[in-house]
Each structure stands twice: as C-alpha cells, then as structure tokens.
Amino acid sequence: HKHSSTTVTNVKMIVSGFILLALAKQVYATQVCSPNSGPIFKDVVIVGAGAAGLAAASRLEEVTNGGVSYALLEATNNVGGRVQTQTLDFGGFSGNWVVEDAANWIYDFPGNPIMSMVQEYGLVIAQQDFFDFDAYDASGQSIPERDLSKMRRNWDAAWKCVQQESSSPYT
C-alpha cells in the first residue's frame, strides 16, 4: 500500500510526551502544595498544566528572566492535560501496546511554534505515511483490504469536506 511520500511531506509525527517534557524542563516549580496547605501569594496564576499552561509558564520565565512569581495549578495528578500515554492490552494480545491519547502529530507549516521547539531541543521526529498500515478489529483479526479501501474512500471524502469548510490554511 505504498504511496508517494510527497502526499505527506508536511506531516510529521512525534510522541507527545517528548514535547511536554521539553516544555516542562523550562518550568521551574516554586512550590508543591495540597488544598489544605494554606494561601499562596504569587504575581501570576496559571490555571492548568496542559500544553498551554506549560507554554505560558515557560514563556513567563523567558520574558521576565524568572522575575515574576507564579503558581501553576493543575486539577489532576497528571502534567500534560489531555496528552497522556497509556499502555494497553489489545484484542486478546497482552503486552505493551503504547497509545497516545492526544497530540500525536506536528504539522510542519511555517511559523509552527512546536516545530521550533522540536528543533531547539533536538527531538527526533518521523514522517508519517498514512497509507502504509495494517488494521485489526477489536478481536485482533486482520481487516480485509476491500474494507480498508472503503474506509479510505470515506476518510478521503470526509477530509475533503473538512478542508472545504475550514477557514484554517493548515487543515
């Protein structure tokens, strides 16, 4: 099922955890507290330790040279917001199937700040070929090529509609 790689030249894939780790390296926690630890007095409060919150804290550190105190609040025990890595069993196959819940791809368009971070931190990225894959149903059985072809046609039609309706040049 190999297609020309030019169809995906602007699409790059990276495991989202690497990006979050790169962001988190720039965030210097000033205090870890529990809800019962009393008031904290800071110049700035950043709500959420997802990608946007981590980026905000990183940028605040950068532009103020650490001269502004802040509290980075997160409601869960997980830094990264919706971006989480899970290890699952799948279709009767036990083992370490690593699944990323969000933010798996980086679109390499001009001015994308994520690509700047990839370059800054020397992260390894891989080009994704969306047409070279094997597919399995929930029971672990291989999905026949005729069904995959139909799924691809439906996907292509849906993606074309999204592109036509979108005001973003990056979809």
Automatic annotation (TrEMBL):
Keyword annotations from UniProtKB, A to Z: Signal
GO molecular function, a single term: oxidoreductase activity
One BP term from GO: polyamine catabolic process
SUPFAM superfamilies: FAD/NAD(P)-binding domain
Pfam assignment, any one: Amino_oxidase
InterPro entries registered for this protein in UniProt: Amino_oxidase, FAD/NAD-bd_sf, Flavin_monoamine_oxidase
Signal peptide region: 1-29
Domain Amine oxidase positions: 52-159
Protein name as annotated: Amine oxidase domain-containing protein
Annotated organism of origin: Trieres chinensis
